[in-house]
Amino acid sequence: MLVAGIDEAGRGCVIGPLVIAGVSLREDRIHVLVSLGVRDSKILSPKKRESLALEINREAESWYIVKIAPKEIDKAVDSGRKLHKLNRLEAKTMTQVIDVLRPDVAYVDAADVFEDRFKQHIQEGLSFKVRIISEHKADKTYPVVSAASILAKVERDRVIADLRCEYGDFGSGYLADPKTILFLKSWLKCNRDYPDCVRKSWKPAKKVRSEIDAVQKKLV
């Protein structure tokens, strides 16, 4: 039986894409992931994630990665349509990944507060029948989802490294990072708008914009 794990990286960031990855392999090969030390990517060092990603790619039947650009995220968040915001965008993208991998069973890390609703949103767009296991923190429970989380994180880290080369050191890109918020403030002081790598619809980004606009109006 072919099983797949689907997970994301970068959901809570204000800078960079949301990366969704899927990994499929034979069910009787799951033990290999365990023996390799595959686990939730968040508790692994960058070096360990990179080495495991190579092993996962060798062991997997297939894998597929989708990067959702900030502009697409902003469009979903600002849509104003109930249940059609970021959660729905993630479900739609996971549907795309599952359609490519075509497993018998797909384990997904549920982005919605309601696991079954997230499952239903994925199933709505599928072109074939597949059993969906939708759970919170699935990357801690199922090794195949852990594998997907590693591929997603490694890919996002690569993108962030490229963005730092282009825009300078903005920190991690996460909302809790003071360096990231400082970058947003500094950028707007010198430019009229955020660069394309910033999720403009995020509340912190909007707050920084409002604060900078207020200061600039006082100076006029």
Q: What layout of secondary structure does this protein have?
A:
Blueprint (H helix, E strand, L loop, with lengths): L1 E8 L8 E9 L3 H7 L9 H14 L2 E7 L1 H8 L8 H16 L3 E5 L5 H10 L6 E5 L2 H4 L1 H25 L10 H13 L12 H17 L1
What are its keywords?
220 residues, alpha/beta, Nucleotidyltransferase, domain 5, Arc Repressor Mutant, subunit A, 2 domains, five-stranded mixed sheet, 52% helix, 15% strand, globular
Describe this structure in words.
The protein starts with a strand and ends with a helix. The chain has two domains: 2-163, Nucleotidyltransferase, domain 5 (2-Layer Sandwich); 168-214, Orthogonal Bundle (Arc Repressor Mutant, subunit A). It contains nine helices and five strands, in the order E-E-H-H-E-H-H-E-H-E-H-H-H-H. The longest helix is centred in the last third of the chain and has 25 residues, at 143-167. The chain is an alpha/beta fold. The mean pLDDT is 93.
